[in-house]
Amino acid sequence: MRKHERQSPRKVWPLILNKTVRKFFGEAVVVTQEVDDIISSPVVKETIINNSDCKILLDQRKYQNKFDQIQNLLGLTDKERSQILSINLANAANRLYKEVWIGLGGTQSAVYATEVSAEEYLCYTTEETEKLELGNIELAIRQLAENKRQENKQSFNP
User: Fold this and answer.
1) Pick from 57, 54, 56: which is nearest to 104 by CA?
2) Quick check: 78 and 116 in contact, CB under 8 A?
3) How far apart (Å, rounded) are the C-alpha atoms in residues 48 and 147?
4) What are the CB-based long-range contacts (under 8 Å, 24+) for 155-158?
5) pLDDT of res. 130
6) Percentage of the chain surpassing pLDDT 70?
């Protein structure tokens, strides 16, 4: 009996899923908003992280105190750590963008800006005051984006 066959099905499904997907030349994508999901699971570490050539991380400042664990778990270099912890620290105030870090196979990594139009920003915003301004979502987004452009051309006109 294999090691993973002795474990509960709930704990080994990531292993089985990852192996099955790879067998059919697919790629498994794992997304989490809670870093403890990754840190606390040896199955995730063994099956997903060790087989991931591409890693994408968003702003990690709220995990700065845990970042030694994250760096060790993901096998990040000190340069990559610096890149990741620099995300969104010096964004231009007159542009509508957020930054993301992408590491490829442990050989290339960089921080990239992801910029959206005013309509896209307003469609996905979680700012309560902006959401309250919306009625008919499509019409409201178009109108609100135009209003914002008129109020402050620098902030909403990339």
Assistant:
1) 54
2) no
3) 45
4) 155/93, 155/94, 155/95, 155/96, 156/96, 156/118, 156/121, 157/118, 158/95, 158/96, 158/97, 158/115, 158/117
5) 80
6) 82
Question: Tokens 């620098």 sit at which residue?
Answer: 154
Bridge pairing between strands 54-57 and 108-115: unpaired
**Cα separation of 21 and 2, whole Å?**
19
Confidence of residue 78 (pLDDT cuts 50, 70, 90): very high
Cβ burial 105-114 (10 Å sphere, 16+ → b, else e)? eeeebebeee
| Residue 18: count of CB within 10 angstroms of its CB | 22
Q: Are 44 and 38 in contact (CB under 8 A)?
A: yes
Q: What is the pTM assigned to this prediction?
A: 0.67
CA dihedral sign of residues 34, 40, 43, 48: positive
For residue 55, the tally of other CB atoms under 10 A from its CB is: 18
The phi, psi pair for 63, rounded to 5°, reads -105, 20
Task: Please report which confidence band the pLDDT of residue 148 belongs to, taking 50, 70 and 90 as the band edges.
Answer: confident
What mean pLDDT is predicted for residues 3-7?
Answer: 53
- Are 138 and 126 spatial neighbours (Cβ–Cβ below 8 Å)? no
